[in-house]
Design goal:
The radius of gyration is 21 Å and the shape is elongated. It has 233 residues and is an all-alpha fold. The protein has two domains: 87 residues, Helix-hairpin-Helix base-excision DNA repair enzymes (C-terminal) (Endonuclease Iii, domain 2); 102 residues, Hypothetical protein, domain 2 (Endonuclease III, domain 1). The chain is built from eleven helices and no strands. Pfam families: HHH, HhH-GPD. It catalyses: 2'-deoxyribonucleotide-(2'-deoxyribose 5'-phosphate)-2'-deoxyribonucleotide-DNA = a 3'-end 2'-deoxyribonucleotide-(2,3-dehydro-2,3-deoxyribose 5'-phosphate)-DNA + a 5'-end 5'-phospho-2'-deoxyribonucleoside-DNA + H(+). Its cofactor is [4Fe-4S] cluster. Keywords: 4Fe-4S, DNA damage, DNA repair, DNA-binding, Endonuclease, Glycosidase, Hydrolase, Iron, Iron-sulfur, Lyase, Metal-binding, Nuclease.
């Protein structure tokens, strides 16, 4: 006799482990409405002159603070603010100017290499699409997202450590890695808030929803937050 094909039973979830539940659409809208009410036009904190210097600043900012990058790039950009002038400056001088930034040797090499590629392949212009940006030395998905958003006004969600933390704590886009969070934000954030969303999340994570000591007592979202990291006296 043929055995009946029965659906396989799923193994029960491990005790105490639950999949993070995303916040409702109405709850997510409320979060971004509050952000907008406080700061309608949030700005990135990396100083730059044009799309090229923005690109360079973002490449230099990997594993570094914006304040530290700005301190170095003020002198760098005074001397070179185009691919041609950066290339003329040379790797050794770029290295000397950015030596206060972590991984400065590799970053200086990438800045010169991307300047060469912009001149040779893109007419000295920063390309306005992700695929082309990601062919440049030192440019990954997050850097491309920042440039597309800040230089070209596209709706992108650059996920750094602050965005990752806040998106998970507030259950806007729960995810185990940055790509999951980015794709979750693309789906969850109402389009009207899209262009500024990652700046609101970065600034909130940098100054309020900090990793070790979140300042929940002055958080404008404290009543909406049910994170296990919440600290309220």
């Amino acid at each position: 006799m043929m055995q009946e094909n029965r659906p396989k039973r799923r193994a029960p979830a491990a005790p105490g482990i639950t999949k993070p539940r995303a916040r409702s659409a109405a709850g997510i809208r409320e979060i971004f409405e509050r952000f907008r009410a406080v700061e309608p036009e949030p700005k990135g904190e990396l100083e730059h002159i044009n799309a090229f210097t923005l690109l360079v600043a973002v490449v230099l900012s990997a594993q570094a603070t914006d304040a530290g990058v700005n301190k170095a790039t003020r002198k760098l950009f005074a001397l070179a603010d185009t691919p041609e002038t950066m290339l003329a400056l040379g790797e050794s001088q770029v290295r000397e100017l950015v030596k206060t930034i972590g991984l400065f040797r590799t970053k200086a090499k990438n800045v010169i290499a991307l300047s060469e590629k912009l001149i040779a392949e893109f007419g000295s212009e920063v390309p306005a699409n992700r695929e082309a940006l990601e062919t440049l030395p030192g440019v990954g998905r997050k850097t491309a997202n920042v440039v597309l958003n800040m230089a070209f006004g596209e709706i992108t969600h650059a996920v750094d450590t602050h965005v990752f933390r806040v998106a998970n704590r507030l259950r806007i886009a729960p995810g185990k890695n940055v790509l999951q969070v980015e794709l979750g934000l693309e789906k969850a954030v109402p389009r009207e808030f899209g262009r500024h969303a990652h700046h609101w999340l970065i600034l909130h994570g940098r100054y309020t929803c900090k990793a070790l000591r979140p300042e929940c007592g002055r958080c404008l979202l404290v009543d909406l937050c049910d994170s296990a990291d919440k600290r309220v006296a």
